[in-house]
Specification:
This protein is mainly α. The chain is built from five helices and no strands.
């Protein structure tokens, strides 16, 4: 495999994984009766119209049809992609806030 092809494959894989991370966040919000766009905009006000988030929201299912997404799972996925700010915002809506410095 050519180095250029390998690089392109790695980039495409990262993009797919990033979409999965956004979908996990969107479904977690649905499951918690939270507005994913609102939480995202509170965290990243300069990115109001995130097309990947809108795409992910279209793929979510009603919370009654969804598997449970543990808060720790969400935080782990967001952290893996460097979305610590979004994890911090989301943590305000959990009972076990990992960012609570009590």
């Amino acid at each position: 495999m050519k180095p250029e092809d390998m690089e392109e494959q790695i980039i495409e894989s990262y993009k797919q994984d990033e979409k999965m991370m956004i979908l996990v966040f969107a479904q977690w919000c649905v499951n918690k009766d939270l507005d994913a766009l609102d939480l995202y905009t509170k965290t990243y006000p300069e990115q109001k119209d995130n097309p990947l988030l809108k795409e992910a929201l279209a793929l979510t299912v009603p919370k009654e049809e969804s598997e449970t997404i543990a808060d720790d799972t969400l935080f782990g996925v967001l952290s893996l992609y460097g979305n610590d700010d979004l994890a911090h915002t989301a943590s305000r809506y959990t009972k076990n806030n990992p960012f609570d410095a009590r």
